[in-house]
Amino acid sequence: MKVRISDGATDEEASAIGEALAQHVRDEVEVYVGDADSPAVVRDRPTTAGSAPTQPDEAAEDDLGPTDREYALWDEIEDIELGGPEKYKERLEEQGKLFVRNRLDLWFGEDGMLFEDGKFANFDSWHPDSPEVEEDNDDRLPGDGLLTGAAEFEGRELHFMANDFTVKAGSMAEKGVEKFLRMQQRALKNGKPVLYLMDSSGGRIDQQTGFFANREGIGKYYYNHSMLSGRVPQICVLYGPCIAGAAYTPVFADFTIMVRDMSAMAIASPRMVQMVTGEDIELEELGGPDVHAQQSGSADLVAEDEEHARELVANLVSYLPDSTDEKPPQTEGKPPVKSPEGIDSIVPQEPNKGYDMTDVIDRVVDEGSYFELKPEYGKEIITAFARIDGRPVGIVANQPAQRAGAIFPDAAEKAAEFIWTCDAYEIPLLYLCDTPGFMAGSQVEKDAILEKGKKFIYATSSATVPKQTVVVRKAYGAGIYAMGGPAYDPESVLGLPSGEIAIMGPEAAINAVYARKLSQIEDDDERAQKEQELREEYREDIDVHRMASEVVIDEIVPPSTLRTELENRFAFYEGIEKDLPDKKHGTIL
Question: What's the CA gap between 496 and 340, in Å, rounded?
Answer without folding.
Answer: 13
